[in-house]
Write a structure and sequence with these properties.
Elements: H1 3-6, E1 13-23, E2 26-29, H2 31-38, E3 46-53, H3 58-64, E4 91-94, H4 103-112, E5 120-123, H5 129-135, E6 144-149, H6 166-174, E7 181-186, H7 196-201, E8 208-215, H8 218-224, E9 233-237, H9 240-248, E10 254-255
Parallel strand pairs: 1-3, 3-4, 4-5, 5-6, 6-7, 7-8, 8-9, 9-10
Antiparallel strand pairs: 1-2
Helix pairs in contact: 4-5, 5-6
Length: 257
């Protein structure tokens, strides 16, 4: 990373893939250095984080980041501390399951940042249980949300990217009063029935609904669709005969097949 460039007070948007080296119990990554930089980036509003495992030995790290109070050791995340103040993001994306969204980190990030300004939250790699739990009721301006869930992500559980409690997901979704776009990837292809009341409660604001991997039944969908007052785009797994019937009835929904 270019420390001088990232330290610019004019930094507004950043997409970053951190290098990591993970061997046995020793972890070296650029995340500690990145955390030191970003917590002083007062104008940062858009952040996209990823990670890639490469040969990045500690001596090389120490040489590159010698001007920062960091040795590159610690968890594979921004590892915020009690007195840190993270800039109030408007957009956040984490697109690597290497990033450790542990319970401790989730709670600390909730404490160190003003989340009320966040408008987009993109977490395609999983469903972070603790983060969703602590952010419930704290995202009044969130317009876009993307996440995925399923037992196929079990290998990511140690990094905090899974949620086996559907009630945590329901409470979180139902607290998003300004949500306009929702995208969920259901890797287990489980029934949408447990989430139907929650989907219905989002009907006043949603414009775009993308639900991948849910085996819908025509009866459930017909009951749900009238709840949506502003829906423009719906992407789901659905028999074509239902879509043809809906189009014949002059529906205002644009189907994506």
């Amino acid at each position: 990373m270019d420390v001088r460039l990232l330290s610019s007070p004019r930094l507004h948007s950043l997409s970053c893939v951190a290098l990591i080296e993970e061997r046995d119990t020793v972890k070296v990554s650029e995340f500690p250095a990145l955390a030191q930089i970003l917590k002083h980036s007062k104008n940062l509003r858009k952040l996209s984080l990823g990670a890639i495992q490469l040969n990045f030995p500690r001596p090389k790290y120490v040489d590159i980041y010698k001007d920062l109070p960091s040795q590159g050791l610690g968890p594979m995340n921004l590892d915020l501390k009690e007195d840190d103040e993270f800039p109030p993001l408007e957009e956040l994306e984490i697109h690597s399951a290497i990033y450790e969204m542990s319970s401790t980190h989730s709670r600390m990030w909730r404490k160190c940042m003003n989340w009320s300004r966040l408008q987009r939250l993109n977490l395609p790699v999983g469903c972070p249980r603790t983060l969703f739990d602590v952010l419930t009721g704290s995202l009044p301006n969130l317009k876009y949300l993307c996440f995925g869930f399923g037992t196929q992500l079990a290998s990511r559980s140690s990094r905090g990217w899974t949620c086996s409690d559907i009630n945590v997901i329901k409470r979180f979704l139902e607290s998003l009063n300004s949500l306009e776009e929702l995208e969920i990837v259901n890797r287990d292809y489980i029934s949408p029935e447990p989430l139907l009341p929650t989907f219905a409660k989002l009907g006043d604001t949603l414009r775009v609904l993308n639900l991948y991997g849910f085996p819908w039944k025509a009866a459930a969908l017909k009951e749900l669709l009238p709840r949506y007052k502003k829906l423009e785009t719906l992407s789901i797994d659905m028999p074509l005969e239902f879509i043809r019937q809906d189009q014949n009835e002059s529906s205002k929904i644009r189907w994506v097949c």
